[in-house]
Specification:
PH-domain like, 591 residues, 12 helices, alpha+beta, elongated, 22 strands, six-stranded antiparallel β-sheet, 4 domains
Length: 591
């Protein structure tokens, strides 16, 4: 039937065939639809067109592939591996040590420093590194950076891997290193190169490090019998048991317990979880001293009993004390009603506590807290009702200016004189002749003129010119100032005045004693017209002095010799009299 032509009536269907499905024409690869080779037809029957069963076999016995594909190429020649590719990243590692001499040390004479010696095969360079040791006392890390190291035993040669072995001592820039052991790769490489490897040596220990380690272990064993873990467990246990439990005390603080002016009330809290203390200002309303309220007086801290009790060698000038320096802190047993506690230098009196605190002391500490203490308010608790007093003079500035700061925050200029009096008497000055009390021989011939202003009670002293050469520069000795009497209190306001000036009177000025030896005629006339401002002895002495000098008689005769009309004119005008201290004329009104 296979030879029948493909014509209708010559083809017969297979009655047993039931599958007429058409196979897929594409296959999916990486999300793309690609055509697939069609090898089966409808119902998955094989197609004769694509089958190789009917392919004719050819005779390949005399077939020469070179006629079709050409001559085959020769295999590639192998390139030898370079030195860099062969030894890149490969190193020889040794462990060694060096001894360093220690000078002027009573503990040890030398130190042993362990090093790691690395030799790089790619370029024959060496690097030396020292592992870090805690509390070694010297700088550690890289000792020698990677580079060629000259060999002192071979001129113009560097250290080579053939010179390395266990037990070999290398001299590198004046320092001798001894190699003790190496790793497995180093042993294998040197053995393959024909080097007989010496056995490994044990690294010696550093005597100082060993001694320090033993001392640390001994101190740790003697410090406490419990380990760090047990201490942490105790703290955790204390926190879990006492979490939320606080002892509450009521305290009072006085600025001065002996001389009470005001009292402030506080609440002292002791936290049982960690033993810290906090102080808060009371809100009951008892603090009526007029100061601004500050709720938090002291944050939570472990309160020391005496913060100044420090070791003698502690540098308090630039360091603050910590837990290592302060050994004693307040504990619950120290808080008893009636006791004083020191809060960073301030004394607090405990006068009461709450009920929980009383029960805790009784059950846990077997301490019965006393009853509350009645704190009485001082009689003068209100600052407004207190007697005010002026503080003593501090010596800064004038007493009058300093006194104004006690009356107001914005001080005003002091009123030291009457303005009307000053305007009427500003030009009136009493003039006296002074001499220094003879202390030195060269002060014997020095003469001074004192002018006392009646308007503001201020004095001016000038050294008068004289014909004798005293050796001192003439001119102003003291500027205009209101002079205070010696050996008097600053608050008494005692100054030199008109009643202190008389012939022969002594005046202390700037540590020197002056004696009044004369005065001018205008001063005497003013004393006569205002006797209430001077003593009678001063007026009599002035008159006697002027009579001895002959000035008083001459002046009276000159006035009496003039006619009455001229005398009246002279009274209206300013009188002109010759000054007894010099050739200058005084033109002043004595009215």
């Amino acid at each position: 039937m296979d030879g029948l032509p493909f014509l209708p009536g010559f083809r017969f269907n297979d009655i047993t065939k039931k599958n007429y499905n058409l196979s897929a024409q594409f296959k999916w690869t990486n999300g793309y639809a690609l055509p697939r080779e069609k090898s089966i037809g409808i119902g998955k029957e094989p197609l004769d067109v694509d089958s190789i069963l009917y392919a004719k076999t050819s005779d390949n016995a005399g077939y020469d592939p070179t006629l079709t594909y050409g001559k085959a190429k020769d295999p590639p020649i192998s390139i030898p591996e370079s030195h860099y590719e062969k030894y890149d990243g490969r190193c020889l590692a040794f462990n060694g040590f060096t001894r360093v001499t220690v000078l002027e040390s009573p503990v040890d004479t030398y130190r042993v420093r362990h090093v790691k010696f690395t030799y790089f095969l790619v370029d024959d360079t060496i690097a030396i590194f020292e592992p870090f040791v805690e509390n070694a006392g010297y700088t550690q890390g890289c000792i020698l950076r990677r580079g060629p190291v000259p060999n002192p035993n071979r001129k113009n040669r560097t250290w080579h891997w053939s010179d390395l072995n266990n037990g070999v001592e290398l001299s590198i820039y004046g320092v001798t290193y001894r190699l003790c052991n190496c790793d497995a790769y180093t042993k294998q490489y040197l053995s393959m190169q024909g080097v007989a490897m010496a056995p490994d040596e044990q690294m010696p220990g550093d005597p100082y490090t060993i001694t320090r380690h033993r001392l640390t272990q001994r101190q740790g064993q003697q410090a406490t019998g419990t380990s760090r873990r047990s201490v942490e467990e105790d703290r955790l246990k204390q926190f879990l048991i006492n979490d939320g439990k606080v002892l509450r005390f009521y305290a009072v603080w006085d600025d001065d317990w002996l001389d009470t002016v005001e009292r402030k009330y506080f609440i002292v809290l002791y936290y049982l979880t960690d033993g810290e203390v906090a102080v808060f200002e009371s809100k009951v309303g008892q603090n009526s001293c007029g100061k601004d309220p500050f709720p938090v007086f002291l944050n939570r801290i472990r309160l020391p009993k005496d913060r100044n009790l420090l070791p003698a060698t502690f540098p308090t000038i630039y360091l603050e004390s910590g837990e290592e320096e302060i050994k004693e802190y307040y504990q619950p047993k120290d808080f008893v009603i009636g006791n004083f506690i020191s809060v960073l230098g301030r004394k607090f009196l405990l006068y009461d506590c709450d009920q929980f605190t009383r029960d805790y002391f009784k059950e846990m500490l077997n301490i019965n807290q006393p009853g509350p203490i009645e704190v009485t308010e001082p009689d003068s608790a209100d600052p407004a009702n207190q007697e005010k007093y002026i503080p003593p003079y501090t010596g800064i500035g004038s007493p009058e200016d300093t006194l104004q700061n006690c009356f107001s925050l914005m001080p005003k200029p002091p009123k030291t004189l009457d303005f009307v009096t000053y305007v009427l008497n500003a030009a009136k000055k009493l003039r006296y002749k002074l001499k220094l009390a003879c202390v030195r021989e060269e002060d014997k011939h020095r003469e001074f003129i004192m002018a006392f202003c009646l308007g503001n009670d201020q004095m001016t002293i000038q050294e008068a010119p004289s014909g004798k050469n005293t050796g001192f520069i003439k001119g102003r000795f003291m500027s205009s100032v209101r002079l205070r009497k010696p050996n008097t209190n600053v608050d008494d306001q005692m100054f030199y005045g008109t009643k202190d000036f008389a012939i022969g009177a002594e005046i202390w000025i700037r540590g020197a004693m002056f004696i009044i030896v004369g005065l001018d005629l205008w001063t005497y006339n003013y004393m006569v017209e205002h006797p209430h401002m001077f003593t009678q002895e001063a007026i009599d002495g002035a008159k006697k002095y002027l009579e001895e000098e002959g000035l008083l008689n001459k002046h009276q005769e000159k006035i009496e010799s003039k006619p009455e009309s001229e005398q009246q004119e002279n009274e209206a005008e300013k009188p002109k009299t010759k000054d007894l201290f010099g050739d200058q004329l005084i033109v002043e009104n004595i009215d």
